[in-house]
Structure formats: C-alpha cells, structure tokens
Amino acid sequence: MRPVRIHDSLTGDLLPLEPREGNKVGIYACGPTVYGRIHVGNARPFVVFGILRRFLEAAGYDPKLVSNLTDVNDKIYAAANAAGVGSSQLAEEMGSLYKADTDALGIGRPDAEPLATGHIDEIITLIADLIEGGHAYEAEGDVYFSVRSHPAYGELSHRDVDQMDQGEGVEGASLKRDSLDFALWKATKEGEDTSWDSPWGPGRPGWHIECSAMAEAELGVDFEIHGGGSDLVFPHHENEQAQTAAARGKPLARIWMHNGMVRFGEEKMAKSVGNVLLLHSAIEDHGRDAVLIWLLGGHYRQPLSCTDERFAEAKARIQRIREVARRIEPGASPEGLAHYRERFMDSLADDFNTPAALAELFGWVRDANRDGGTIGGDDLQAMLEVLALENLLEEPTGDGPDSAALDLLTERETARQAKDWAEADRIRDELLSMGWTVRDGDNGPELVPAQ
RNA sequence: GGCGACGUGGCCGAGUGGCUGAGGCAAAGGACUGCAAAUCCUUCCACAUGGGUUCGAUUCCCAUCGUCGCCUCCA
After folding, report:
1. A97 pLDDT band (50/70/90 cuts)?
2. For chain A, how are helix, strand and coil distributed in percent, rounded to 5?
3. Where are the beta strands (DSSP E) in A273-421?
4. Tens digit of each residue's pLDDT (9 = 90 or more) over A178-228
5. pLDDT tens across A255-307, in order?
6. Which of A202, A204, A338, A425, CA to CA, is 20 to 30 A from A39?
7. In which band, very low, low, confident or very high, does the pLDDT at A169 lie, cut at 50, 70 and 90?
8. Which of A113, A72, A109, A68 is closest to A89 using CA atoms?
C-alpha cells in the first residue's frame, strides 16, 4: 500500500490514511437529495470520490465507496406538491435520472447507494439510543437532538456553541428546548404524503440522522473517510458527527474530506441561486471526457469556475491526449518515462492533487511525442485508468473514412507526386468539408476526423 | 458581525524558505512540410499591497485591500 495523506477538515491537518483493518478503506460521500436533475456542482463530489476510489485501488487499497440518496425531505415534498405528483414517485424518478446522469460520466458507480427510506429501522434505532443516552428528547411527535448535551459540538466546523446565533425564527413557538437543537424525527405534517411508524408516532427522519444511520449500516463507525461538499460542513456533517459520537462513543469518521464549490461567474453554483449548468447538458455540449478533465483540472479543495473558456481548454487537453494515443502501442513504456507515472501516483497520494497528477501525465505525453515513432503505452494506460480516461487510448468510435474519402486521398497523392499542389490542396479542402483532416506523416498520408 | 479559504505569468492552475519559477490553454518565432496539419524547440518568466521574522520569503507572522464559502435548504 502506498502511503496516502488527506486533508482533514476537523483537525485542519494532512492526515495519513490509516485503515482500521488491513487495506480496507471505507468512504462515505454525501449524495444528493433527489428532487431535480443534478448540475455540474453536484457532480464534483461524485467525480472526486469516484476517482479517489479508483486511485486507492491502484495504490493497493481495498476501498468501499458509499454514496447515499436522500429520498425523503422537505424539498422533495415541496417539489412534488408543485408538480402535482406523489413525493415517493418524484424521488424515484429523480433517483433514476441521477443514476443515468452520473452513469454518463463513465467512472463507475459507488459500491453502495443506500436510500434513506431503505434504512428507517436503523434510523429509529439510532434515535432511540440517543434518547436513552440523554442526548435527544421527544416533543409532540418530533424528536430533537440536544446540542448542549454533547460538549464537542462545533469541533468539525470550528464554531463556538455559545457564539452561535440564538435568534430563533419568529414563526410559532418552537418545540425545541434550545434553539441550537435540531430535528432527528419529524412528525407528519399536512401536505406530506409519506410517513413511517415510530415509537414517537408517524413521521419521517431528519436529514442529518439519515446519513449517520446509513454510514454506520454500511461502514460501521470510526471509518476512514467521510466526504462531501464544503457547504455540508455545517450543519450537516457537524450534526452527523455529534449524533454518532453521542450515541456510539466513537467518532463517525477518521478523516473529513470536503470538496470546494463549483462557481458560475463569481458565485457558487446552486439551485437556489438559479445559476446552474445541468450535468447532462454539460456532457451533451462538451462531452464527458472534457467535463471530467475540467473537474479534475483543479485541486478538489479549491473552488472551480464553470465557463465556456474552461470547457474549451478542457477539450484541447483531451485532444492532446488523443493525439499521442495515435502513436501508442500496447506494451511496456520506455524506462526513461517511468518517473512520470510514479510522480503521478505520488501527487494523488499527497492530498489527492489531481492537477499536479495531470501535469505529470502531460509531461509523459511531451516526452513520448519527443521520441517520435510508436511507443509502449503501459504507463499512459495506467494513469488514464486511474482518471477514468482510458477510453482516450481506444480507436475513435464512429466510422472510418469511406471509400469516397479514400479515393480522394489517393487522387491527392497522385497530384502531389505530379507536384500539382493546387489540385492537391483542392482535394485536401474537399476532404476537410467531408470532415477529414489530412496529415502527411513519414508513413504516408492519414485521415483523421477534423476538429 | 463570527468562522474559514483564497489572491501566482495573456488565461487557467500546481508548488516551494534559497539552487529561482510544474503542467495545460492562448500568442509569436523557429524546426519539420511543396504549403499545411500533427509534433518538437524557443520566447512572452509571475507570485495582491504594506510591514515584520530571517543571512535570505512568492513560500512563515501581522495589517490592509479584494474575492469566495459557511453561519438557513444546499454537493
């Protein structure tokens, strides 16, 4: 196993990845609430943790990536009511679209994708344990977590409980004993068409407790990496951490890993702001390769801008890899290039530095081009596989040149031999209008799809 | 207001207490080519501002300015 360090939001330090058992690494990455189609900002954690999983595998670990779907909460009720459909029906539809949209990224699926509604029993048990331990209380069918019963509260998001805004909303008398408390279980209210029986009456789980319960069910507690967007640090992850620590006496996870936000213009991309680029649109417009390399082109903790310029650049980078792929043959790569592959892995092992890893990959490409001729592709293949871009080495899909194009190419060669440059160039233009660029190499002319 | 992050060459984006300066995109020049394309080489050589620590700071500390995130649902 290659030593790996990852930045931990709780301590603020780079922490070594230390599996509880053998080489097993449990990763829980918060997935979406399924009430609409996801945008490229939502896709970032899917890609970050999906590629992290691939890297850990290549580094000798045995990762298990768990990414939940929140399929019951206020947003879903609101969206379903607005659309005039049942909330569970909407959640199911959007869950399917989420899977289709992320499938199109082509990086594989998480090892487990639990549904909140599939873990109601575990959630109820966890809440009951919290009540029994004095960390939660029931109030008219709701159950709340008692923040002040857990002194460590605030440790993850580095907030002082006593400095937290005490201003309570004015809408009605709260059932909370303390305004800091948050809901674990919510009694069924008007307009909610799904509910589950519980010791506290019919209702449904709060958002934060879902993740604590599902993570524990899939990975146990004190697992290796808990991830998600940086906007989840507070209150979502703070609450998860508090719930599990209070109920189990152990931290939920060893490393808290948070990705930065995707920005659209100068703002965070968010449905609530309305400045979103939907993932499926981005893939349709720019191709999954470009979307992927764009997402990997910045360090996961930094904000990432979403603009046409960035996608154009991403496409150019993809094209550069496609070009070198023409000269790749299966088999071992030259010894002299091995250090790029090694440093590629080192970069990822050092807080998952994908831009630095890409720099090594492109260093390999440059050197490979410099040598000329064909070159063994093992190194490049290995690096691209980690990034889920190994498809770039494959023959381009789609039809090759048809016989008309090949005939023109032959005609052009004849003209060239006769030094009839005007005719040769005319044919080249004609081929271009048919979608083919002519390249005259040492081994004769070649037709490649025009860009 | 509180907490946190960031400000690097035309653009994007890593990184490091000194031997100066990843990688990509773009541009210009050169090589190759009949001319191109692709590729290679070269050039354009930066670290927000002001202090401080240091033999030495872009890298550490403080302040200022600017930007962003969280503090409410949020990937």
Report:
1. very high
2. 45, 20, 35
3. 304-305, 328-329, 375-376
4. 889 999 999 999 889 999 999 999 999 999 999 999 999 999 999 999 999
5. 999 999 999 988 999 988 889 999 999 999 999 999 999 999 999 999 999 99
6. A204
7. very low
8. A72
Rounded to whole angstroms, the Cα distance separating A96 from A91 reads 9
Tell me the C-alpha distance between A113 and A151, whole Å.
32
ipTM of the complex: 0.94
**C1'-nearest nucleotide to the CA of A356:** B14
- Asked if strand B comes closer than 7 Å to A141 Cβ, the answer is no
Nucleotides of B under 7 A from a protein CB: 1-6, 11-15, 22-26, 33-41, 67-75
Residues 152-171 of A with CB under 7 A from strand B: 157-160, 163-165
A296 in helix, strand or coil? helix
Residue found by looking up tokens 């440790």 in the block: A155
The DSSP code for A199 is T
Are A186 and A82 a contacting pair, CB within 8 Å?
Answer: no
Asked if strand B contacts A232 at the CB level, meaning under 7 A, the answer is: yes
d(CA A103, CA A101): 5
Can you name the residues that pair with A229 across neighbouring β-strands? Answer: A259
Match 């990762």 to its residue by tokens.
A63
Cα distances from A141 to residues A84, A185, A193, A197, in angstroms, run: 27, 8, 17, 11
Cβ atoms of A27 and A49 closer than 8 Å: yes
Query: What pLDDT digit, counting tens, does each position of A125-147 carry?
Result: 999 999 999 999 999 999 999 99
pLDDT digits (tens, 9 = 90+) for A219-255: 999 999 999 999 999 999 999 999 999 999 999 999 9
Nearest to A47 by CA among A377, A298, A411: A298
Q: How confident is the model at residue A450 (pLDDT cuts 50, 70, 90)?
A: confident
Of A170, A161, A252, A273, residue with least CA distance to A209: A252
Q: Is A441 exposed, middle or buried (0-12, 13-18, 19+ CB in 10 A)?
A: exposed
Residue A316 · residue A336 · CB < 8 Å: no
Distance A353 CA to B27 C1' (A): 29
DSSP label at residue A115? B
What b-and-e string marks burial along A177-215, b requiring 16 or more CB atoms within 10 Å of the CB? Answer: ebebbbbbbbbeeeebebebebebeebbbbbbbbbbbbb
Angle at A439 between CA A436 and CA A441, to 5 degrees: 155
